[in-house]
Amino acid sequence: MNTQHLSRVLTDTVQELSSSESLHGLMHQHRDGNPLPSGKALAEIIDLARAILFPGFYGKSTVNHQTLHYHIGVNVERLHRLLSEQVWAGLCFACSEEEETFEQRNEKRCKAEQIALSVIAKLPEIRRVLATDVEAAYNGDPAAKSREEVVACYPVVKALVNYRLAHELYELEVPLIPRMMTEQAHSETGIDIHPRARIGEYFTIDHGTGVVIGATCIIGNHVKLYQGVTLGARNFPVNADGNPIKGIPRHPILEDHVVVYANATILGRITIGEGCVVGANVWVTQDMRPNTKKFKRDKQENIDLEYNDGTGI
Predict the structure, then answer these.
(1) Phi, psi (5° rounding) for residue 102?
(2) CB-based burial label for 25 (10 Å; 0-12, 13-18, 19+)
(3) Is the pLDDT of residue 120 over 90?
(4) What distance lies between CA 149 and its chain's CA centroid?
(5) What is the pTM of this model?
(6) 300 has a pLDDT exceeding 70
């Protein structure tokens, strides 16, 4: 290849890739001295959290009653350090100020350490809620031989560890990091839960693959989803400039004791009442009264039925 031609092509390509027009909205201006969010560090944080919440299932295989306190202590200390660093990175990433004083930078780092400490202090409560999720998965699946099998094998447990940890960070207004955590679970399990969503106790997803739970969803207690379920938005209201309006409630509310079967799609800010059953492959865009079923029979349209016996489909 001609050397001059090679040099010209490379130079022109670099020039084009460096142009501000091609980078609009695609480049983050990094400030020297500030950390960057790290997917690798967040993966370690999740591994540590899982080892703390479910000792013996994740992390060191040498955990027993004699060494439990030591292992949890070491993991909690490292978790606080790593989480503080990543929360700080998230705060720095979202900062739009051109200049930052030493005092402002130090204040941000102290805030990150306090947020990490607040989340760690909630780990006992997170474990308590996760225990209800494990119970729901075990009771809801005849194939489950034990709760230990659920913890070790079921993807919903991994996804919910990420979600429940990320949700606490989201509630503390940490930018970016919560979404990265839930997206890691999405990649690992096929379960996509936005960290803003509110999910009650005794929640489970059977099989799990392809489930989507939108940002403004509210899910009550004792709710069960099957694979392929979408809890999404029906439309996206726009402002005067034609841009989507952010942050408004646009996803479903599922009240207590709702069951949603495989590949059902529930869209919009609608309420699925307590005790409802949504059948497989059903499209739901309107409220459902408590204790009703919606399902497809043969090739007919969706059918609503009253029921009082509490059975599934």
Answers:
(1) -60, -40
(2) exposed
(3) yes
(4) 23
(5) 0.87
(6) no
